[in-house]
Design goal:
418 residues, alpha+beta, five-stranded mixed sheet
Amino acid sequence: MTATLHSKSYVDSLPLEDIDVSKTELFEQEALYPYFERLRREDPVHYCKDSLYGPYWSVTKYKDIIEIDTNHKVFSSDVSQGSFVLDDTTLNAVEGGIDLPNFLGMDPPKHDVHRMVVSPIVAPQNLMNYEKLIRERTQGVLDDLPVGETFDWVDEVSIKLTTMMLATLLDFPFEDRTKLTRWSDIITTRPGYGLVDTWEQRTTELYECLEYFKRIFHERQNLPPKPDLISMLAHSEDMSDMSDTDFLGLLALLIVGGNDTTRSSMSGGAYAFSLNPEAFTRLKNDRKLLATAIPETVRWQTPIAHMRRTALQDFEFKGKQIRKGDKVVMWYLSGNRDDEAIERPMDFIIDRPKARQHLSFGFGIHRCLGNRLAEMQLRILWDEACNRFSRIEVTGDPVRVPSNLVHGYLELPVKLHA
């Protein structure tokens, strides 16, 4: 009997050294979990000697990931050492990519200075100010959805809501907000995955993004400070010597961070509630469960599959000898399915105890800056969805993003029930 491709028996039959969990087709087919399960079981710190991105280490267990994520003295995020994602071309001028430096790709103390400049955007008072606006927009988007007909949840809900929020955070011209969605997708892709045909096309579109934002930046410099991200940058002394390259790199972080991750969690929530209709019914009847259902949605989806560090020195970790310069990939998607840290990790449990115990926002100094804002958007979305619908039904196969970084959806056909 032949084992089905990507089944547990098939994966268990592979030579351990041949496993490469960076292949985008595994993410496109949502076929990763048997691979990660085997690595956690047999080789939790695994060396892949040959991949599209060169050799790299995979760290797959929850506690091991936290150790790496908090040891920035040995495992660096600094882009001058490499990158904070596996594919160097996403953020560096190699192969055809361009440099996109930002504070997620910095180590302390420089990281802390740059992060502090934009931190006020997600201060508790600012979040309170946004709540009414987010709820009104969410109500409007949900009220316009066709009940009883199949539509694409990604286009009609996830992208619309996250793009409007991102435009607000940047105080970006609302009529042009779809440009933000396009630029976000361009930043995390490479030619051959359906969005751009050449590196030159990617570069051209990113420089269009830069020129658009430079105009806004200069306008904000000549106006009194306002509570939007571009105004914060324009009036910051710490950012006064920012080059065009620095500015574009920071924009890349803000756009992707404010768009892709929440978008994927919104779509992942719709899929999870479709697979678990009883969970949606429970949530409709008891909204206190939103407090645990939202972090559970973020864990279950894990919208960013990995972050990467670069070893600054030779270092023995869990019996493996990591060499200076090696790429070390922390697979959050695997850590969030580690049954030694999370009970029944494959299940979607909306009243899960310790629901915030997950890796989706990272850990340590690089923990996602906008995590509370993302959770608020998700809480309002599912609260308002419960007010309107009895069931969310996914009617066809999801089309997933061909990426080992963004764990999300391109299309999700959904039918809503009144």
